[in-house]
Fold each of these.
Amino acid sequence: MIFNFRYKDELDNLKGVEGFIYKNYCSGSGSGRQYFSDENGKKIDAVRQKIEEWRITKPLSDNQYFFLLASLLENADAVANTASVYGAYLKHLKKSAQKTLILKPALFDFNDAIHEVFNEDANSLINKIEGDVLYLDPPYNARQYGANYHLLNTIARYDNFTPNGKTGLRNYERSKYCQKREVANVFENLIKNAKFKYIFLSYNNEGLMSEVEVRKIMEKYGRYDLATIEYQRFKADKTENRNHKATRTFEYLHILQKK
């Protein structure tokens, strides 16, 4: 196993420090934010700093380094004081956020398949890749993923910046998929340039593009079909977005067999 138990014991026994996470995202520091308990915020700082130190002194392989980071992120998320994503924190510590952070190894399924991971604009990447099946799950509203998961990005990067606003956001580039005026054009560009036999798009009825808009775009490029599933609206979503009074939402799976 990549996760050395000696590393686990040492990380679990670290004394918390008042680092970047505690100073900016815990109430005891006076930041006004409460994403983590003071104890867990200090523990996250201590573990994150130790992992970075080990990368230089151990030395850790890239696999070991990123495995430890993934383990920290998974376990930090388990004690986060949020309703779901990191767009907001709760006023009072919920029960799971009061638990002490314990570093458990991140879970991975090992197999013989070859995987490639890309970190770039999808509309640029689409010109470099091809295959049989393309599954798309873009942001569907104006709420950027960078805002929803900003604190996990901050723990991973552990860089110095000035957190913005009440929720302590970091600067990020806003996706065109989160912009009403841009989304249809950028989506059609992606579909047009995709060199895949089958394309699946997961979207819902509250997206910036309507079901009709998506269908009109996709059916230009081949045989189109649609599958719909009804869900009960997520409670945290109802709280954050008070404009929506509906208790149910519809998830669409748009299906295209390209010409």
Amino acid sequence: MGTTSSTPVAETITLREIEPGDIEQCARICFEAFGGIDDHHRFPPDFPSVEFASGMMQGFVGLPSTWGVVAEVEGRIVGSNFIHQGDPIGGVGPISVDPKHQGGGVGRKLMEAVIERGRGAPGIRLLQDSFNMLSLSLYASLGFQEREPAVVMGGKPTSPPVEGIEVRQVREADLAGCEALCKKVHGFERTNELRGAMQAFAPYVAVRDDRVSAYATALTFWPMAHGVAESDQDMQALLRGVAAAVDDPLAILVPLRSGLFHWCLSEGFRSLKPMNLMTLGAYQEPRGSWFPSVLY
């Protein structure tokens, strides 16, 4: 959530579903809100340009599985939020509020709207910038529980690919194995998200003994990258294999309490930004190796 501290101002806030014509204004607010707090804490920007934010929102507004909401004050858009419902667990974000209107209840109303929209889901999840005290307090007051501290990490493993484990791009025939693996680790599947990643990114699988032992939706763009594996060793094999196949450095969100975090450090990855996984509703402690995307 992109918010910074400001003086609360009493204002009448109205909500409505986002429309394509809203994207330009919402993208500007998103860029300024996230950029303000990233600059304040000296972290790299989540959204490098207004155009980047606009392109992301264009994709969201066109998806039937994603619902967006805007907040208005006196007919002017002052914030937006999204909930992604393509799979059983809903994912929230990005939520952003115009810096001039932060502290006046806009963020709370935007969060209440997506929570209501996702009420039929077993659970809703999000990733929160752990240095943002406003969003941490807001989400906790709405019932979200902190489940796992995580850190954005970037780099390339120094170790070469693992012999005996095939690492390649996901194929349609792999989806059933990926679904079964995600259910084993998390208790639910994210198959529709994986299908979407096959169109937008280059998801990879690790195959050991003729079965999928690890997969990831994206490994160079951490906001949209989630991965699961039977073990840390299988996840390491996946990361080592992908690193050898692509030119760009890897970038993922790594749970701090996992063995994967210490392995990444030993392989030369850099820690870039701390975040918190927060959940509302059903939650199962992961049973295997994993890392979340921003939308979990």
Amino acid sequence: MIVISGSSNLKLAQKTAELLKAEFLQAETTRFEDTEFKVRINKNLHNQTAVIIQSISRPASETLLELLLIIDSLKRQSAKEIIAVIPYFGFSRQNIQHLKGESVSFNLIANILQNLNINRIITCELHDEASSGVFAIPFVNLNIFEPISNEIKSYLNQNQIQSNTENTVIVSPDQGGLERARNFGKIFFGTDSFHLAVTEKKRNLEAVHQSQAVQIYGNVTNKICIIVDDVSTSGQTLIHSANLCIQANADKIIAVIVHKDFTNNAIAEINNSPIMSLFTTDTIARNDLEESDKIKTISITQVLANAITEYTK
């Protein structure tokens, strides 16, 4: 096995290769003045298993194309098996047509990947789990809530905060994420019996990253609220939900965002929000973001290494 990284998340790919005790190689990218680029895998991979680790993250169009070019290079070298590990599957929020005339980008990308005849795709916390059904090739959507849950428990213990099923409520910031919040709660509490709340959100379909939380359903009064979502860019959905919880007399606010696709403005707003701490992962490499003591990043390298080992036996 050889682990090959594109440019989107080099550190995550390197660490995963180390855990696998596998050879690591970064794809060579040559850029031209007309903004075109080409990719080269400078190694003979004939009859080998190649694992590509590449998030489709900003700049999303470029990292997607880079992934496709890496796959093409491996096909041309007659690699025995090609597994695409896409920790953050960009464009997955574009999985339905909201307005007449819109493209459904996720379905198109799924068709392109399938037509390249790769053997398997592994991703983490897909925006809508039902979207995996569009793939005719083996597709694995990893749940990475366990390491996040463990980190939150450790944080609460360190801060001498008692959390249990009576004083803590899991909050979904919108109706679409209710099942995700429920799944997190089962892992966090180890039981199906816990408090769950949901924020009603209205999104402006004509504007980018504009939404408004208008009401919260569920009892959050005097409770620790753990808001759970898969991805955040502007941070508005998350912050509006946190504000509604505070208005309903919640005690403390903790947030879980799996994929941190934050803008710098989002970081500033999170710092000024009632959120006590925000837990996220390294599915997206964002070294350009300003630092925040509130944001705690958990590595998913072990989760990826375990999955790759299981599906390459």
Amino acid sequence: MHLYLKLLSGSLRSRMQYKMNFLISSLSYALIMAVDFILLAAILQRFDDVKGWNLYEVGLLYGISSVAITLYRVFGVEIHNFERYMVEGEFDSLLIRPVSPLSLLLTKNLDLSRIGGTLQGVIILIISIIGLHEKSVDTFFLILYLPVSILSGVVICFSLGLLTATIAFWTQRIKDFQTFTLYAPFNAANYPMNIYPGWLKLIFFTVIPVGFMNYTPVLFLLNKGGDLWNLLLPPAVAFVFLFIAYRFWQFGIRHYHSTGS
């Protein structure tokens, strides 16, 4: 962990050499993500609710999902872009160093422009909580649980990213896979899971468990169903899924064939 923090600090300092680029990129990314929620808000204002979920309740789901995916993209940028290590043969250089390849990937680069998306998600969470409070919803336990939900979401995002990256050991390219394992599922997680057909909900609670990071706990915290297990499941699922992803990553490394093989 000490070495990880040292490498992370060095990466952060190198990225902050271009402060204006950081500010403009962060603002641009935040505005792009904000447009998505503005369109969603416009639809909900017209129809009042979606399957019993009003604008502020959907805002909670959207905010948690946004913060989780953008934090993953900040720290896991090299995992997300792992394809080029296979295509360009750069992974070999990581294997000859006396540090875990995964540690090197996590500290090699930071995508600080995604911080804008994180702040945008936090703002939506604040607005949603204030709106719910004004509607006489008890938000005390909701606020206390938010860090757990967000952290669980980040771990689930990272696990899905790592699983997808590992596929590159056999396929070299993973961009098409990311559409099905990252982009589509996390876009779907912005909305209540009860709007989807049964077979799709099954996927979102098993193979690609994005439903656990926000929908499961919020369902209980907003008194829409469930019990205390709804609060225990997200961190438990995140831990199990991370373990599976890491073991699959190790399996992939053992079966990796160098570009010089």
